[in-house]
Design brief:
With about 160 residues, the protein is an alpha/beta fold. The protein has helices spanning about 5-15, 25-30, 60-65, 90-100, 140-150; strands spanning about 20-25, 40-45, 45-50, 55, 70-75, 80, 85, 105-110, 120-125, 130-135, 150-155.
């Protein structure tokens, strides 16, 4: 079984030297720090969720607010034309919103099973997204809306 999309993306980023990475994912922190000379990695503290190996909550958000980023790279639970990016967890949506607030550009990693779906908690509108990385092209109407919002759609294979 292939690795989930964010971990594949992290493996590619790990090959770029000189990055500063701030993450709430222990798995991404591990991946990014395999070559300790390549990048600086900051792992946010907070309430730990063992099911997805991530920290969330007010402690993580407070720590995050001391950083500024050129890029935020996030996953999402759902994406549609009306709401934009959504998540199923209130804690993950709150942390994602805090990450977005600290970043100049936003890249969303999403697989096609989440296109034109809804989740309980809004993360951000389409207008905030810079890049959308997905496994296949979005359905025609969604794709047209993404292009109209000037989102760079990248089909990763």
């Amino acid at each position: 079984m292939p690795a989930p999309q964010p971990y594949i993306f992290a493996e590619k980023l790990a090959a770029i030297h000189g990055l500063t990475v701030v993450t709430n994912s222990t798995q991404i922190a591990k991946t990014m720090s395999l070559d300790p000379s390549s990048s600086r990695v900051f792992l946010l503290g907070g309430e730990f969720h063992g099911d997805n190996r991530q920290t969330v909550g007010s402690m993580a958000i407070t720590q995050l607010q001391s950083f500024r980023a050129h890029h935020a790279i996030l996953t999402a639970g759902a994406l549609d034309t009306r709401t934009g990016v959504m998540d199923f967890s209130i804690e993950e949506a709150q942390l994602a919103r805090a990450m977005i607030a600290q970043a100049e550009h936003l890249t969303i990693l999403i697989d096609s099973s989440k296109f034109n779906k809804i989740a309980s908690f809004e993360v951000c509108s389409l207008s905030r997204i810079t890049n959308l990385v997905c496994d296949i092209a979005p359905p025609e109407e969604l794709y047209a809306t993404l292009l109209k919002a000037k989102i760079n759609v990248i089909i990763a294979s």
